[in-house]
Amino acid sequence: VAYYTGMVLWGVAGIMVVPAIISLASREFDVMPGFLASAGLSLLLGSICVGFAGRPQGRMSWGHGMLVVAVSWLVAMVVCAVPSWLSGQYISFVDACFDVMSGFTTTGLILIQDLDHVSDGMNTWRHLLSYVGGQGMIVLALSFLTKSFPGIQRLYASEGKDERLSPSIAGTARLIWRISLWYLVVGTAVLTVGAWSSGISGYRGFLHGLWVFLAAWSTGGFAPQTQSIIFYHSGLFEALTMVFFVLGSLNFGLHHAVWQGNRAEVRRNLEVQAFVATSVGLTLTALFALSRIDLYSSTASLFRRGVYQLISAHTTTGFMTIYPTQLIWQWGPLSLLTLVFAQLIGGSASSTAGGFKGIRVGLAVKAIGQEIRRLLLPESAVIVTRFHFFKNSVLEDRQTRSALLIIGLYILTFSLTAVANVASGYALDVSLFEAASVTGNVGLSAGLTGVAMPTALKLWYILVMWVGRLEFMAVLVFIGYVLRPRRTVR
Amino acid sequence: MAVALCVCLCCLISSVVGAEALPEEAVAGQSDGEVYSPATVIDNARHLTDVTIKLKGEVIGPVLWRGDSAWLNLGMDGVAVGVWVDAAQARDLSTGGAYGIRGDIVLVTGEVRATCEQHGGELDVHAISVFVLTSGGPLDGAERFDSWPTAIGMSIAGLISVALVRLRLRSLAPGDNLRQQRVPK
Is B157's CB within 8 Å of A55's CB? Predict the structure, then answer.
């Protein structure tokens, strides 16, 4: 575990060089030292871990794979919080850790102070965390820093991804990064033009294009300004961001299939069908709710505020085109409820999105249909339910059980977080909305998340973001590992 | 678990349906010339819609020109709101807030729109007049770590440690660590 954690820390140090370069380009010479010192610290800690552990031997077990991922995420959070903390933009180190975990998990909730006066280097760092976390930090570090090794697929799966785009996991990781880097170039170019057209010129427009792309593609939801996407006051810019966060919420396997010319996969894929069905259903419900209270009278308003917010929630992005408190006093209960459901469902498996994922919704619906047919048909009937998810499969009890278990764990975490919010003194509607946002790694806020939150609640949110992103199993293994020695002592 | 979810969601509906309207101090204050912050405008926009108010804030970022008009983003205490102004009103502005820069502090007299149909349902303020109270300038930002010698020292130490560990690892058998000497067979 220490060896792989050390490798991840070396990778993290490499990432810290990027904001240092941006600081240099922006002539923020007082910002660069924080990143360079943190990179040096990360290299040192990584060397200690790797040196202490030595070269691993034997094949990695599932338990070890999950433990590596869980521990690496925690250690990386603390180390990555160092440059954030050194920037002086955070009231406490816990707040810095909160924002880093929010970035890594592509959540997008923030505790940073005075965001409108943050340096270019720091803004690049925040958005880069989202981008790296969304693609898979562990697999990136390990597939680029080491040659393929036995058990790497267990690390890959433990980080919440299970599609294999090439015969080897290292190849899959590189393909994921190739896809993401291609979109990075195209997306940054497109959004830079969008930023220019909204009135932000030159180099600053490029930075806004880069930052917003990083947040959109990773469905992270960080924004360089406190007003999120409202800052740009541009319908075109909003539409462009929507294109990229919808693309980011799709399975990397789907991107790969389309790249390979297999466009039929888009139509046949169960997860895409589930995403379209839930998107249409929730959008119509939200539009009905907003029309009933006569909030927006034009189609443009309904699209720019209603549909945008809904899709931002469903893809777990968290970009906002309305102000947080407006959700509570303006949107009405039914619209709010629709957003809660959208946030919990989330995007696609093996994507940058959070939530309990469209494929699990699809499998759960298939399983319910199967059970209804079982009740209607004679007992001797053999019922076979088929679905297509990159290949034709027959629905097995194991898949249904796994999908329902994860959905159940998400709902349990959501409920516990809502209770924690209410126990901390927040109103019920705000508590439920924020609980769905943090559990689904979304980042929309109704105004609860802020520096005034109790520290215990901030720590709980860090835990929930971490658990939600790694889809429970890796963290449960970690908790089991932490508790095991105590039991032995007794 | 599903029951817990249903209970929570039912509570959400009932709590929002049963929510009482906010007190209208915000509206009461506007007649005697009270100056609002962006946060107060956003939180009380439903009471302030179509009401002419005075809003004070710092210009954040560049002025976003739109032909004969322009957008200003006015911020204060970590909350900002969009203000729609005539281009002529924005020409006197010299500085937008950014890293190390405090933007112009302005006083806007304008009309609040909770869901502005002209701007796609955005909550904004349509300015009647814009008055620069204080011109922008350098901002004493947060206290940050800016020691170049420490940063360079740490970076070099980190790079050397990686080189040493990688060199040493090459001479180790799988499973050995740096504290162990490899025993020749």
Answer: no
Distance, CA of B86 to CA of B68 (rounded, Å): 6
**pLDDT tens digits along A53-100:** 877 776 677 777 778 888 888 999 999 999 999 999 999 999 999 999
Interatomic CA distance for residues A217 and A131, integer angstroms: 7
Q: Taking Cα atoms as reference points, which of B153, B155, B174 lies closest to residue B163?
A: B155
Mark yes or no for CB contact B174/A55 under 8 Å.
Answer: yes
- State which amino acid sits at residue B35: V
CB B151 to CB A40 under 8 A?
yes
Spatial separation of the C-alpha atoms in residues A385 and A376, rounded to whole Å: 15
Chain segment A278-312, per-residue pLDDT in tens: 999 999 999 999 998 888 888 889 999 999 999 99
Q: Is the pLDDT of residue B11 over 50?
A: no
- Residue B72 pairs in a beta bridge with B83
Strands B35-36 and B52-66: parallel
What is the residue-averaged pLDDT of chain A? 90
Task: Tell me what the mean pLDDT of segment B3-32 comes to.
Answer: 43
- H or E stretch at A43: helix A32-53
Interface of A with B in 48-77 (CB under 8 A): 48, 50-57
**Token digits of residue A232:** 């740009």
pTM of the complete model:
0.89
Q: What is the Cα gyration radius of chain A?
A: 22
Q: Do A117 and B100 touch (CB under 8 A)?
A: yes
| Cα A293 from Cα A385, distance rounded (Å) | 42
Q: Which of B150, B165, B166, B167 to mutate to test the interface with A (most CBs of A within 10 A)?
A: B165
Distances (CA, A) of B19 to A333, A424, A445, B135: 10, 19, 19, 43
Q: Give the pLDDT band (50/70/90) at residue A486.
A: low
